[in-house]
Amino acid sequence: MDENRTQVVKEFVLAGFSHTASIEAGLFVVFLFFYVSTWVGNVLIMGTVASDRNLNSSPMYFLLGNLSFLDLCYSSVTTPKLLVDFLHKEKLIPYNQCIVQLFFLHFVGAAEMLLLSVMAYDRYAAICRPLYYTTIMSRGLCSVLVAASWMGGFVHSIVQTILTVNLPFCGPNQVDNFFCDVPPVIKLACADTFVIELLMVSNSGLISTSCFVVLISSYTAILVKIRSKEGRRKALSTCASHLMVVTLFFGPCIFIYARPFCTFSVDKVVSVLYNIITPMLNPLIYTLRNKEVKSAMRKLWDRSGLGAKAGANSQGSL
Q1: Could you give all domains of the chain from N- to C-terminal order, each with its CATH number?
Q2: CDD domains recorded for this chain (predicted)?
Q3: The pTM is what?
């Protein structure tokens, strides 16, 4: 490698949403609300599942608690840096921090994809094999599947990260997104990245597309297995929340990673959807359509004493 192709980039410049300070300030408030809502909703789900004996013993809610934890981790990879950048004119990130952000983005993102596939299998077992459900989805197997999801995400991310850090970056250094991700970063490399792009698309695209196919196949098998219209209606009602999560998460991921690394004007908006919006919506999607979770939340609220205090305060004000 000659001298003018060696690593000289020490930091990257991230693209902002606007060059107007007032607009950036307004976006800071909006995205801060999203991030706080993500934390409140997902922590509430984790606390509810952990505190309720019935939910904690159920494979479905054990997996849901793990999904909430992944959502917290996933949103925390990019959102805090985005919020800080809204308050600064120059949006800089050191090279090492960029690589770390890229690593954890793919680590947690791939783990969540695999966990959603596990949750689809859980729903298949619950609906199609109800008599053997507790035997099939034992706590031991659930723990192994969750650990396998994390391990799969780690292996995927290691591959992506190694392929990236082995590239030379000698300028330019402007990343065409608000966070460091593989597609916009490797486009800045001072080398021919055609083969590496093919490897990365095969890696990321294969995981996202394969998991999506597994999920759709699982729900299709459920509908085929159930003959009655009433049974299918109940199955769709049970799985509707999961289908919404799958659509919101996998749709943007397939759009970004399962194609050649060319830039579209909507990429930044799509990135906001699966990085920030989806982790915030997941708690709402699962709780608003789930009577057991809402009931457990009410019990948790009552046990905390906040419900009684709120009632006493309302009576006192009358």
Answers
A1: 3-290 (1.20.1070.10)
A2: 7tmA_OR4Q2-like
A3: 0.86
